[in-house]
Amino acid sequence: MSRTFLTGLLTSAALLSSVLTAPSVLAQTPAAAGKEWATPAGSLNGQRFSTLNQITAQNASRLQVAWTFSTGVLRGHEGAPLVVGDVMFVHAPFPNTVFALDLNNDGKILWKYEPKQDPNVIPVMCCDTVNRGLAYGDGKIFLHQADTTLVALDAKTGNVAWSVKTDDPSKGATGTDAPLVVKDKVYVGVSGGEFGVRGWFGAYNTADGKPAWKGYSIGPDSDTLIVPGKTTELGKPVAANSSIASWQGDQWKIGGGATWGWKSYDPQTNLIYYGSGNPSTWNPKQRPGDNKYSMTIWARDADTGAVKWLYQMTPHDEWDYDGVNEMVLADQEIDGKPRNLLVHFDRNGFGYTLDRVTGELLVAAKFDPAVNWASKVDLDPKSETYGRPQVVPQYSTEHNGEDVNSTNICPAALGTKDEQPSAFSPQTGLFYVPTNHVCMDYEPFRVSYTAGQPYVGATLSMYPPRGDTNMGNFIAWDARTGKIVWSDPEQFSVWSGALATAGDVVFYGTLEGYLKAVDAKTGKELYRFKTPSGIIGNVMTYEHAGRQYVAVLSGVGGWAGIGLAAGLNDPHAGLGAVGGYAALNQYTSLGGTLTVFALPQN
Amino acid sequence: MTRYARYFLAAGMASCLMAGFARADKPADPAAVSSDEGKYTDKDGRPTFKVHKDGKVDFYTYIGYVRYTANCMHCHGPDGLGSTYAPSLVNSLKSLDYADVMTTVANGKKDVSESSQLVMPSFGENKNIMCYIDAIYIYLRARSVDAIPRGRPQDHEPKPKGFSETEDSCMG
Ligand code: HEC
């Protein structure tokens, strides 16, 4: 177990006070979660940090299960419940049931919403029928259903206030993302990169569901809402129709760039941040060019959608390193200067630290030493290749070509981290990151496009890095320096979103089903409990009647349930080596359950 | 019948699709009795695999692995072993015959109820699958009788003459 305890925690007291005294913009946008957990990440800055501190590193070992609740759905349970006032809102995968539970009455069901959806949407949802959760605002609960219906439910009654169709599942578009509410708008994105869907990010009025704006990931400026000459990438204005110019022919029309990840918002700049996913197809030879703006961090004006800045992390992707992972907004000092940061742990294995106001790239460093497809990201502003990854030819599937199996590429397509969101503690100044430690072979080949049919174009197989048997790590990361502070190995990929708390306890779940509490400073395990099924949900916390609770959805599934169920197989190991990588189905089985923890009452 | 399905029939790549082999109680003996340009058939004329003594496989088994892994793996799990989402085809092919597999892949299959949400999509119009369906079947057939281990076949016969031309004309 490698634990390098670093000393980067000195500024923590200063940081905490700056968080608490920051020009508190609006009561509706607190910088951290407290008693309530009213947005998917607890707060709009995406920190997944709670000021609750009853549970501490000293007493966390005494945690107990307070109550449980079954969703009645077997598929993979991503996301986390919301708590608003005395009510908890729990969502489920397809058919996307929503429950309102009365916390004053032992979790009695206040109302239940169960949409009727065409089952033909099920197989269009690549890698399980997950849903990443709900948003709350304007007295309504918002849900983006599998069939791309965005529905607003009256939070008191569960009655449908309005619903709108955001896209077309018969063409491969589906809804899996958690919406985000800011002021009078609700924001959603779309899934379907493996079906050649052209990704977009949209805003709808919370009052009536009327579309406010929609910005595509790919296309002419009129579609992407890029403002030529004004929108910048790495400090330079972007040229007119730069997206289309980076594709050949009409490929951009089925170019992917899905937007199914988490969203965050900064009230000071009024910018909304999110990432776009892989270009279609997975065969890079079929789409020459940089394929802008797939694999990109976006900063859009929340009112108009106009793009302030963007940054394409993986131009001309050759590995399916989607850029959709969360954007965590935090204020930290770098080189003695206070900075407004955006921190992003990409599928491609680099942890990026940018100035979230200007889009300036400050740090880009590997957050798993196994990452090998690129030697580094060029950080020299004077260089021709500024901001671009330096791809290693041996691992370039474009370079090796169609029908060639490129081997030992790290990370695998599921990335050093997938959608499972990280947490940030302003007290320690560290980011807590659930990671995958898996490599792959990747063989691209030619595919033809049929609307509504999978459009993949590569075969891949995955296995842990040479010499390792652990398929995941839970790490603490210093985004100011780009260094791992400590790292706890995990047998399986860590596919659960982390929670950081003011009690200096950090929580996450494991694929075997453990809810774990660790010391925020050292990573030392304080508590574990095995829930009924593997955890791919995110841990959240809330306070009710003076008591702090920690809750998580278990219910294995998603890629993890599919890829790891039978165990990974190293194609390069001799026969007999296979047993080294455990099969997940020997540890856990399907079933959606919410488990809620608390300290014993004296 | 869809436009593409007709096309595939014409291309001869799924010539038994609608020809109606009766569902057998047990799939026939998979032993290869004849071969045409590197494509092997069993005694009933159904496509089958060939594994040489040194472990080398026929080209179709190999391409079947590649296409299975690209098109079916994300539901049916790596190496046909099944997942939390869809059944193990290694098991299914112990009782399903060539015609059953063709019908299911072309038309899909559903088992949707309060407690089950199993949906196999219909791939009849998907060239990336239908142009390779014989190869996918041959690969799964080999897996179902344990003729090949998990993972990518390490060695295979060379690409048969005419394979690329047939592939190109099917993919369009
Ligand atoms: C989107 C997920 C998905 C994909 C992709 C998929 N399948 Fe399926 N498949 C299923 C499900 C779910 C079932 C079970 C359906 C049922 O029981 O009604 C199934 C059933 C089957 C069956 C019938 C099994 C039996 O025992 O009756 C066959 C054969 C099959 N699939 C072959 C394939 C092949 C070959 C591919 C790739 C070309 C493929 N499937 C791709 C989800 C999928």
Characteristics of this structure?
heterodimer, A: about 600 residues, mainly beta, Methanol Dehydrogenase, Chain A, five-stranded mixed beta sheet, four-stranded antiparallel beta sheet, 5 helices, about 5% helix, disordered N terminus, B: about 170 residues, mainly alpha, three-stranded antiparallel beta sheet, 8 helices, binds heme C
Q: How many structural domains can be distinguished in the coordinates of chain A? A: 1
Indicate the overall shape of chain B. globular
Show unreliable segments of chain A. 1-27, 574-580
What is the residue-mean pLDDT of chain B, rounded to a whole number?
85
Question: Secondary-structure blueprint of this entry?
Answer:
The complex is a heterodimer of chains A (602) and B (172).
Chain A: H1 12-21, E1 49-50, E2 64-70, E3 82-84, E4 87-91, E5 98-102, E6 108-113, E7 135-137, E8 140-144, E9 149-154, E10 160-165, E11 180-182, E12 185-189, E13 200-205, E14 211-216, H2 221-224, E15 232-233, E16 236-237, H3 242-245, E17 264-266, E18 271-275, E19 296-301, E20 307-312, E21 328-334, E22 337-345, E23 350-355, E24 361-366, E25 374-377, E26 389-391, H4 397-400, E27 406-409, E28 423-425, E29 430-436, E30 439-444, E31 458-463, E32 472-478, E33 483-490, E34 499-501, E35 505-509, E36 514-519, E37 525-530, E38 540-544, E39 547-554, H5 558-563, E40 593-598
Parallel strand pairs in A: 1-34
Antiparallel strand pairs in A: 2-40, 3-4, 4-5, 5-6, 7-8, 8-9, 9-10, 11-12, 12-13, 13-14, 15-16, 17-18, 18-19, 19-20, 21-22, 22-23, 23-24, 25-26, 27-30, 28-29, 29-32, 30-31, 32-33, 34-35, 35-36, 36-37, 38-39, 39-40
Chain B: H1 3-11, E1 34-36, E2 39-41, E3 47-48, H2 59-71, H3 73-76, H4 89-92, H5 98-107, E4 109-112, E5 117-120, H6 127-130, H7 133-144, H8 163-171
Antiparallel strand pairs in B: 1-2, 2-3, 4-5
Helix pairs in contact in B: 2-7
